Prior knowledge:
Helix content: over 70%
Structural class: mainly alpha
Shape: flat
Order of helices and strands: HH
Largest sheet: none
Number of domains: 1
Number of strands: 0
Low-confidence stretches: none
Number of helices: 2
Oligomer: single chain
Amino acid sequence: MRRVVPWVLIAVFLGLAVAGALTGSIQPVFQKAIRICRECIGIG
């Protein structure tokens, strides 16, 4: 399970980054991605 998590986080982060680049609102997307990653890891 731990081997899958990093790839999932990378895929989600890249997906949000591409979506943000297409919409032109990168900053809010990165903040949302960081928040999601923290929830996945269990920090936030």
